[in-house]
Amino acid sequence: VKVDGRPYRSIWRADDGRAALIVDQTLLPHEFRVVRLETLEEAARAIADMQVRGAPLIGVTAAYGMALALLRDPSDAGVARAVSVLGATRPTAVNLHWALRQVEAAVSGVAPEARADTAFRLADRMAEEDVERNRALGAHGLEVLREAAEARRGEPVRVLTHCNAGWLATVDWGTATSPVYQAWDAGIPLHVWVDETRPRLQGARLTAWEMAGLGVPHRVVPDGAAAWLMRTGQVDLVIVGTDRTTAAGDVANKIGTYPLALAASDNGVPFFVAAPSPSIDWELSDGADIPIEERAAEEVTEVQGADPDGSVRAVRIANPGSDAANFAFDVTPARLVTGIVTERGVCAATREGLAALFREPGAGEEPPEGR
Amino acid sequence: VKVDGRPYRSIWRADDGRAALIVDQTLLPHEFRVVRLETLEEAARAIADMQVRGAPLIGVTAAYGMALALLRDPSDAGVARAVSVLGATRPTAVNLHWALRQVEAAVSGVAPEARADTAFRLADRMAEEDVERNRALGAHGLEVLREAAEARRGEPVRVLTHCNAGWLATVDWGTATSPVYQAWDAGIPLHVWVDETRPRLQGARLTAWEMAGLGVPHRVVPDGAAAWLMRTGQVDLVIVGTDRTTAAGDVANKIGTYPLALAASDNGVPFFVAAPSPSIDWELSDGADIPIEERAAEEVTEVQGADPDGSVRAVRIANPGSDAANFAFDVTPARLVTGIVTERGVCAATREGLAALFREPGAGEEPPEGR
Fold it and tell me: pTM for the whole thing?
């Protein structure tokens, strides 16, 4: 996408080839700052502190993190250490482990002195593939929006989304937003309800910023208001991303997604999940087996925002004596999901639905078996 | 309750008899400031700006507001104007209109020069009755918690609540918190999950402050996390307040209550509503007829909190170019409500259930007919 008229991705290789550049997402929308990652530790910290976030972008950042690690220590021990450090940053997004396994396999048969270069080239390719995968996913999602638009007969299609599954969460296009952006480009009138997404406000900060940047009409709502919007007939469909979807269609996504799905079900609103294949965990069936990250209480008890002069600061919102719990994700059972939108099409949230799209041998880089 | 060892209510008459004193709830928990209301306009502003909030306290404040108005203009026109100004402050809580009607009726047969005094004495009595009503409600709710405690066999009963239906929302005791406080006093082990309650954070600011003040173990969670707590078996029951409950049991309460009830239903968690009788609108059956207040977008796009030095300030959290919607309440359909806890007992959320408790003629100040 373009930011102030200049094309950007959420991550790219530095001109000197020996670093990855990212946009620091903890500062958006208040400040657009590009940060240079040069070491394994910097890459791991960028993921853990959520300077980069979103399952697809976490995966690509981890791949670059491997390359950065191998610049300094390309030994087998160095490979193992990088996998370990990066793998421990965040537990829920399966893309992280998917990416680490890919790089690990790619460098294993390569002489140490060539490993960093191999890893960089693979990371570059993974970034390109992420863009293409999300573009394809969006083209399938576009058809869903086109149908909704026909039912609305010229009135804007009212889409509700949660967290940020936008281009910032991927390398470009986004997952849940890719159909939205493609529909907008195709002239389909839209209105996007943006769940603010407590505690870290990725909706209010990042998705709203993306929508404003591309000119898509939108309004932010507190997370608790989404159900009421659905109950009062103000939402035509919900589409969210996912950090890990099981082979049977249970969907781990940002905390607050499961109650959205309940509200959609109670009100007959279609509930779609945009899941590029690296987000699918073919080894798990039951969403209860997905590890759910718990983060620091301060992310709940304090809020970061901008002063009138634009400077960013954190303020304490909760009672000072009170502790908080901060589960970063929840799991939506497959029974509440209308459809899963992938780069190969839209399917039911069932083992059969997913397998039908991904089982043909050799049809893509994501075989459902043998990982 | 006691605050720092000194007994307080949320509203009381000044020693000179000619003003009402309140605790400014927009500043809590960062500052405990008592504010003196001397005029109709000050009382109306205190309600509209949410220096006082909570349906029962709004009702009592409106009664004092009538008295303050009649100090200056006790004419029939003055009465009508005060009813009009106070009645326009907030649309959803039915207690407001209940209180205004009571005062209007009480002063109508009284000579103008005696009206302010009549209104003050009625407001005083309404405050006392609110305390007694919520104490009685809590005694009935205590039995619900006692049963839950037996099932927990000595482990803490895990109660989840939303917004602040605490003593700050009433004159004393609270509605949803009255059973909690009485159970705590009775030695029943408890753990309270406090929904932070965006946008105005009444849970994180006020309920957490109340719980900490009384020593009740508790943790704050983002609103979107409550469903996950229920799904993972960490909640024994939900109890919330109400701003208006219809004669058939539909429950208007703070935005975000309806998705809580959906999550409770999906996970077999009992969902109780603490509804003192002035919160029941006997003239409405269908929750869809309850007027839902819309408030300023800035309550969503900005958040107020405290700096490390304790000074209170607002910061912008949302993307600066983005608008927000701010529905203050939602309506939970009666089918999702396990029971309604009132000052006369616990009943089903049905017309029959409520009528059985309140229909005996002359049994209380709240006849179900003729209002």
Answer: 0.96
State whether A317 and B303 contact (CB < 8 Å). yes
Closest Cβ–Cβ partner in A220, A257, A317 for B318: A220
Strands (E), chain B: 2-3, 6-7, 11-13, 20-23, 34-37, 157-161, 190-195, 218-221, 237-240, 244-246, 251-254, 271-274, 280-281, 302-306, 312-316, 323-324, 329-332, 339-342, 345-347
Q: What is the ipTM of this complex?
A: 0.95
**Beta bridge pairs of residue B7:** B2
Which of A319, A329, A332 should we substitute to test contact with B (largest number of B Cβ atoms within 10 Å)? A319
Interface test with B, best of A160, A220, A251, A330 (most B CBs within 10 A): A220
At residue B360, the pLDDT reads: 61
Assess B158–A contact: CB distance below 8 Å, yes or no. no
Q: Which two tokens stand for residue A73?
A: 């220590």
> Is the CA virtual torsion B211, B212, B213, B214 positive or negative?
positive
Active site residue A330: no
> Which residues of chain B have a CB within 8 Å of the CB of A209?
319, 321-322
- pLDDT bucket at B370, cuts 50 / 70 / 90: very low
pLDDT in tens, B147-200: 999 999 999 999 999 999 999 999 999 999 999 999 999 999 999 999 999 999
Among B225, B231, B303, whose Cβ lies nearest the Cβ of A325? B225
What proportion of chain B, given as a percentage, has pLDDT over 90? 95
C-alpha torsion angle, residues A82, A85, A89, A91 (rounded to 10): 90
Q: B-contacting residues of A 162-201, CB under 8 Å?
A: 193-194, 196-199, 201
Q: What are phi and psi of B239, to 5 degrees?
A: -140, 130
What amino acid is encoded at A286 in this protein?
Answer: D
**Cα dist from B89 to B34, B43, B56, B83, B101, whole Å:** 21, 10, 15, 10, 15
Is some CB atom of chain B closer than 8 A to the CB atom of A218? yes
Compute the distance between CA of residue B83 and CA of residue B88 in angstroms, rounded to an integer.
8
pLDDT tens per residue, range A180-218: 999 999 999 999 999 999 999 999 999 999 999 999 999
